[in-house]
Amino acid sequence: MQLAKITGVGDVPKSLLTTIQLKGVAIFPLTDEVTITPSLGYSGKGYRWNNLTFTDQVGNSLGEGDAIGLFNYIQLTVPLSYKIIAGQNQEYYLGAGPYFSYAVSAKGKIKHVSLTGGDETWDMFKDNAYKRTDAGIAIEISSRLKRKYLISFNTDIGLADVSNDGGGKIKQLAAGISVGYVFNGK
Questions:
Q1: Which domain holds residue 35?
Q2: How confident is the model at residue 167, as a pLDDT?
Q3: Domain count of the fold of the chain
């Protein structure tokens, strides 16, 4: 599970978009205490505006609804982690490092209100309003239990402007939790 929002100058939503993340993670020890824990997978990021008032061209109210923008990223994260051994069957990893993302698609959607004569869903890349690439810093805290299970908390702090609009910089921000199975539990 992942909670996402956009940040930047101007009017940005206060609501969080609930999405998912799916990834494969590798653990490469450099020393007894330092590892590289790269991951590759899907990361849903974007925005959600709740309770917006929609009007037609002459100002008549169409009702209140939500606007959602979902970017579907393929993301590579490469954190350098410090390993803490808490017992024979428990390890902790505290790490940070860069992430790089490419959006394979992005869809905007209006929910809970019917728009007359307008689209309620749209391709967010159609008018070249957003960039497909994103990059930033990932911070991760993971626990490896019984050498078989991995529980991770992560935060992705976007440093790249994902907007092609000159009105201000828009950056991605996401925080999530992952649960996984370790195939090679050495």
A1: 2-181
A2: 64
A3: 1
